[in-house]
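# nightly structure sweep
# worker-07 picked up a monomer target from the shared queue
# config: single-sequence mode, recycle default, output format = structure tokens
# input follows
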Amino acid sequence: MTINPFQINGVTNVYNKFLKQRINNILENDNIEEPKDTVSISAEAKKRNIINQAKEEVLKAVRENE
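# output follows
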């Protein structure tokens, strides 16, 4: 099988175009700011958290006084 120089040149040109497009896509995607993650805590969860913190503080105080 014979491969002519113009065939090799054609393949390398297509490959170079592909790489340039890929690099441009990567650069464009880096500039796009992704949405920020948000977390919302329900009122019930906040109450439970405060109660748990209070329990821990009371238990810590009791243990220190023993």
